[in-house]
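[job 0412] stage=fold_complex status=start
inputs:
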Amino acid sequence: MSQITGGHLVAKYLKEIEGVEAVFTLSGAHIENILDGLNEFGIRSVDVRHEQAASMMAHAWSLYTGKPGVCLVTAGPGFTNALTGIANAFLDNAPLVVLCGRHPLRDDLKGALQEMNQIDMVKSVVKWSATCHDIKRIPEYLSIAFRQAVEGRPGPVFLELPPDILSIAVDLKSVDIPKRRTLKTSVTPVKEDLKAAAKLIDQAKRPLLIGGSGVGFSECGKQVAAFAEKTGIPFALLNNGRGALPDSHPRSINDGGFTAVMAALPQVDLVIIVGLRLNWVMESGQTFPDAKVVRIDIDPTEIDRNRTSDVGLAGDAGQILDLLTPMVASKDRSQWEKDLRAAYGAFLVTEREQRETPSYPIHPNRLVAQIQKVVGEDAYYVVDGGDTSYYGSAGFSSIHKAGVTAPASSLLGCIGTGVPFALAAKIAHPNKPVILLNGDGSFGFNGMEFDTAVRLNIPIVCVVNNDCAWGMIKHAQEMSIGPERCTCSELGTRHYEKMVEALGGYGEFVEKDEDIVPALKRAIESGKPACVNVMTDCTAVSPATVVFYQTLSDF
Amino acid sequence: MRFSLLLYALYAALRVASKTHKGFRHFIRKARVKILIKTAAGEPARLFIFDQGRISSLPGDHADYDAALVWKDAAAGFSVMTSRKKDAVFNAAARGDLKVLGMSVYAMWFQEAIDQLM
Ligand SMILES: Cc1ncc(C[n+]2csc(CCOP(=O)(O)OP(=O)(O)O)c2C)c(N)n1
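[job 0412] stage=fold_complex status=done
writing structure:
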């Protein structure tokens, strides 16, 4: 009779049924048997230095691969450390499967090591949570976990696995293992609603399509392209929908970034919003009060949130666009598109000049442009920080899905996400350059993960946009309480590149414009995880800070 | 001449509104923003200074603005700024009659401030 332990059963299910390639983890006695199982079944374990990085990397993995990310953390502090990454995935609707150790069932309420009520704590930031009490039901629980993570609106799930079921063994024949990986299901709208949407689209003179993370998770770049090409409607892909089509697609207005969307929205007569929540970032839909709205979202409760839609189509974005595209008229809207580009171009004069012009100190827009020039579009860019997130999102462009991500500018607004996201990007796409542009403040949270990068040979290149401050906060304080009263927002000149060197990576320190390109080239050529620490203009303020300040001060 | 008068009249109207118009007062109460409006030739020009609810203004071209609205010429500036059409500024930018220098988000803020008065 072939026996299998609970931990190995977990690994067997992950590998053979869900096809999991990598698990992001940090060791602990409670989960030892699962770790051993990962080795046994040939699943790569990516072991980090702080569980926050594990949950963030697993979240990022889902963006870069389109498959749920799996994170494995130990009980108690392993869990609490991972919590920020779980909350981030929750607000990002990312399919994250968190497998977590737990104090033994046997020792419940006895004051066991790392005993705490994890389930109650995690509940508000997951779609589903459970504790498995029976070794034979491990595959069943895992299967539910994966289904919950990917079905409908994706999101994180949490499964506790106590050592009393992980380290005991059971006869494999007595375990019922599901035969196939979990299926994604979806609904589609009724014909009348599709017709109503098509009518609004045909009538529109100045329409715009804005796609969000739902486009990314639905993997429907092709459908967006077919729709935009037939209707001539320009589009912007935001958040984790960015890159579902290359930024350089002829209908895309991503070259104008935030400014293009802000300039366009008050002018449009129809907005087609696909897989994007109308939250504070979109000013709750208030910037286009007179426009008609067609909303496509996997979650029916989003259809009228913050802004009533004229037509709401609930379901998978790709499937709906497949149905809608044959129903809409083929149109030439090139004049509208030309006007739109010229109009937002007029608002970007200075930003574009800053990109082209060397300056001392270096302007962050220039830094971004120089990086883009060296690295090109066939790369993955991750940006992290306050102002830094703006500069990077506006300035970088990529031909890849999720080729430019700014995890700190999503709903949790969690800085420190950059290093984990960049590492996950490089593991998922080892043959492409992965460039991380990191604010110096944000670098501090997970900078120690450069050890992970060195140990596991994950050669990302991190460029620190170093303004010696928590820039976005400092500048917002200058606006609100005044420059002379700024508090807790200054950082010193720190040699982060030396820290990376000390960990076994490659480092460069840059103060002058002419040194950016050679330093970056040397960093890439080193083939090591690298840090190019660039001193930039500490007085530069990004538009994101202005908007952020206005939003928070409007009381 | 007409354009320079218009800029002065705008300043006067904004100042009055900053004392009497509730919505406008609320909108500008926290901002410290300098908006320059000028023609491409540099004249006429006027700087509008918003300082936490107070508004002042200086005639002429200035370099220390947060955002500058640069009109192709005085006639274009005059006709768009006196237009009541919602999309007049957008269309002017699309036609090449307007360029925004500096941080355009402040120009959008300024536009929103003016919209409060419409
Ligand atoms: C985890 C977390 N802590 C604090 C904040 C508040 N915060 C937002 S932006 C910011 C400053 C970021 O500074 P830096 O990384 O240096 O980037 P910069 O704004 O200078 O580009 C801070 C502290 C946050 N969003 N997330």
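[job 0412] summary: Chain A is about 40% helix and 15% strand.
[job 0412] exit 0
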